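Please study the protein below:
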Amino acid sequence: MKKIIYVILGIFISRIIFEFYINFTKIEKYFQNTYIEERLTYYIISINDLKYNINIEGNIDIKTNQQIKIPYYINSSKKVDLDEYKQVVTLNNNYSSENEHNAKLILSYPKQFGLTGNGYINATLEIDDKESSIPDNKFKTKQLQIEKDDGYTLAEFTYPRNLLYNQYGVLEIKVISGIKDKMYKKKDNTGNTQSHNFVYYPVVSPITGKIWLNNNLGAKYSDMNNIYLCGNPFKQAKSIVDVNAYGSLFQWGRKSDGHEFRNKQELSVNMNYPSDNPTHNFHIISNKYPFDWRVNKNDKLWDGVDSTNNVCPNGWRLPTKVEFENEFNAGLILNDNNNDLKLTMAGYKLNNNSNILSEGLYGNYWTKDVSNSYAYFLIFNPNYKGISTIYKTAGFSVRCIKD
């Protein structure tokens, strides 16, 4: 009799353990399929620079609460609910232009119901200084000089990514004086240390929430050498044919070595190069398939932020073709009134010479993606847009995206 009882009890306990394991496995798989961005950076521009006559107060004001988009991706058919979230950080008075003490910065979002697929959690960044030394509903950030100051972290927040595994993401609030070009004050193949003194700033796409540079690499608006001619580096294209926003034309995979400048008068060099880094600044032409400036192709040259020849500023890279497509889906045609990134029709160079063609008629932007011996690019004019491929000796515009 006791044997039977023990057998029944054993079966009962085994069933409980089995069901617990099955349910836990289901939960585990469910949360493994839920992804919220691990690290985000939100930029605040705060500049007071007498040399360039730029004064931008990077203030956090209660009247204009900042909106933060936190990306999520759910790789399952189930819907996900997230509890409301709120975190308060006390700001360092050393980062205040008024030495304000005990001001608080708050990141929050309401409860999220039925999240599916991919999208964004709309969070709010707001100031609370009711109990601070200057209770004026505003925190004035310490301003920076463009060439002198690199920026500072005003605050860091942690938000839940996956509570089952105690995982959290980090949102950094960073005050910057602008984003310096990868070759800022560095010597290129011309021997010049001033020709790449470009400064950009980040803009958030209202379509996807992705962070892009405000201008093409090499745009005159971003050129600190021409600041009095063009205004300031925080200007963007006034139209799709604004020549001050055209910028440089890069051969796919090459560094900013001077070959990309559109005002160059030098002749092209009819030769393929045996390494990733030519020692000259000429536009390399090629009349033989696969029309590559390199003897043996290297598809990794612009593959990401850490790639060998990445021309984008630190922490930035070329976009993928999908990232361009996501910006301009739903039949959107790029024109002056429908162009959130302020892309321009800067023209292009081909494989057989360094002349600029179709300036003001076509916009052509490289992606990081390749196909066999060719590379993908965005092409558009007021009547058309699409993704296509072309040989890597072509010279196209580059617009960087935050990694």
Q: What stands out?
A: Residues 52 and 227 are 7 Å apart (CA to CA). DSSP finds three helices and 27 strands in the chain. The helical segments are 2-32, 227-230, 321-327. The longest helix spans residues 2-32.
